[in-house]
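Risk mitigation, structural track. In case the binding assays with zinc ion fail to produce interpretable data, a predicted complex structure has been prepared as a fallback.
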Amino acid sequence: MRTLKDNVLCSGVGIHSGEPVNMIIRPFDKPGIFFRRVDLDDKNLIPATYDNVSDTKMRNTTIGNLKGAHVKTIEHLMAALFVAGVDSALVDVDGAEVPIMNGSASLFYRRIMEAGITKGAGHKKIVVKKTVVATAREMLRALPFLERLKGFILGLFYRRRGLDGYVKLSPTKDKALNIKATLVYTEPIIGKQSFVYSFDNTKWSAENFIRNIASARTFGKYAEWGYLKAHGMARGADEKNVIVLDYGGEKTLNRIYWPDEFVRHKIIDAIGDMFTSGGFIVADLESYKGSHALNNAVLKKLFSNPDNYDIIDA
Ligand SMILES: [Zn+2]
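Fallback model:
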C-alpha cells in the first residue's frame, strides 16, 4: 500500500457548480481512495469505486453512496493519484465537486509528488483474461423509452456522435495498461484524432504522462455554454480550464497546448475511470468515441464474471 507523506491542499471551483470548494488529500491507513464530504454531518464517506459511480451524464464521473452523498468530477484527480502510484488516500471536500483547477491532471499530479509518497507495494494488478466490450448502442437500448426519446430530441449525444462508440478491454502480452483513444467529431478543428499511451508503473511511463498527457484539458463550445449553464453545468468553466470552440468548431477561442489536446484529455479520463477498479488494470484498452458512461459500463462487465480477470497483489 502506498499513501501520501503529507496532506495536499487544492482550492478552486467546481467546473459544473461554479461553487468554491476546498479539497485536502490526506494520507490514509487502508487501501483504496475514499472521498469524504466534510460539509455533511455523517454518512459522508464514499469509496471511489466503479460500483459507486452514480452518474456519468454530465460529461464527468460522479460517485455517490446509498445515503445520497456524492462527489462530482473525480476523474482527473483519480488519474493523477493512479499515475503517482498512490493506492490509499482520504480526499476531503467541503462541497459536491472536486475543484477543476486548470482543467487537467497536471496540478494534482505535481502537488501529490511534492507531498511525497510512502514506500510500499504499489497498485494491485487486475489482469484482464477475456475481452469485454461496452457499446454506445447497447447503452442506449438499456435506457428507459422516455430517456431515449429525450436523447434524440436534445440531439446532445446520440445524433451528433453516432452509436458506433465503444470501450474495449482485452488481454495484453505486456505488463501494462495500453490505452488507444480515438475521437471523431464533425467540428473541423477536432476531426478524427487518436492517441496512444502505455502505463507500466515505471518512472518512464509517469514521465511520459506528465510530458504528453497530464496538461490536456477538455473542451466545450462557446455556443453551448448558455444552455449548459442554464442546466447546472459548466458554471465554473473558463478559458483557462476548458478549450473553447467557436460556433462552427473551426477554431479555438483560447490557446491550445497541442492540436490533439482533445484526445489526449480522453486518456486522462480513461486512466481516472479505470482506477475506479481499485487497481492497475493490465490490458489493452481501446476507446473509440469513448465516454465516462462507457468506461464505467466496461468495468461493470469485466467484474460481472470472475473468469474475466485475475487479481495479483503487488
Ligand atoms: Zn475529463
